[in-house]
Amino acid sequence: MLRFRAARRPGLPARGILGDPFGLRNRLVRTDRHHHAVHAAAVPVRADGRAIPRVFFAGWVYRIPRWWKINGWEIGGLVRVQSGDAVPVTQATNTLSAFGYAVQRPNRIANPNAFANRSSGEWFDKSAFMAAGQFSIGNSSRNPVRGPGLQDADLMIGKTFWISERVNLEFRAEVFNVSNTPPLNDPSGSFGSAAFGTIKSAGNPRDFEFAAKIRF
């Protein structure tokens, strides 16, 4: 069974990072347009508070029909597809820290996501940003960059073996990230640093696991 939910989640900037501390325009920043998720409770949110937009998640289990002496086996899978989450861009050198600003944003002069030759070495157009002047507030929005998405598929095959009327053994063989697609992490958003715009890490590659459980 699949459930689908569309929602809009407003983002509230943390204290000290408002672009205009006395204006209403930046006090309520819309993180993204629409957030779609199969989770019925809420829009998926990362540990750091950033929402993950457009998530599709599906799970299935199929009992394989009996063939000759082979019966009782089940095969199942999980599929997760999501677009990249929002990535903040801030200046590596904050000239506003003495005035109570936790971060200083650069100026944005173009769309950083309109970048054809995307790679882990340069995920977005770095030339779309330029340094804000000393003691000045940059015009860049809070999360102007879209990180890499995620496409993941997991498979499982298993069977329950009855040893006696009260004792059974459940066996499972599982493979995670079947396609071995690199789950890239977010690019660096530290403007002015050497790593700006690059992706230096990724999640786990394809992984195999075997499990057994005895019930009595």
Mind explaining what this structure looks like?
With 216 residues, the protein is mainly β. The chain has one domain (54-215). 0% of the residues lie in helices and 33% in strands. The protein is built from no helices and 15 strands. Strands 5-6-12-13-15 form a five-stranded antiparallel sheet, with no helix packed on it. The chain has a two-stranded antiparallel sheet with strand order 1-4. Strand 12 (150-162) and strand 13 form a beta hairpin.
Low-confidence stretches are 3-43
Largest sheet: 5 strands, antiparallel
Order of helices and strands: EEEEEEEEEEEEEEE
| Total helical elements | 0
Number of strands: 15
Task: Report the mean per-residue pLDDT as an integer.
Answer: 79
Shape: elongated
Domain count: 1
Strand order of the largest sheet: 5-6-12-13-15
Radius of gyration, Cα only, in angstroms?
A: 24 Å
Distance between the termini: 31 Å
Helix content: under 10%
* Percentage beta strand: 25-35%
Q: What class, by secondary structure content?
A: mainly beta
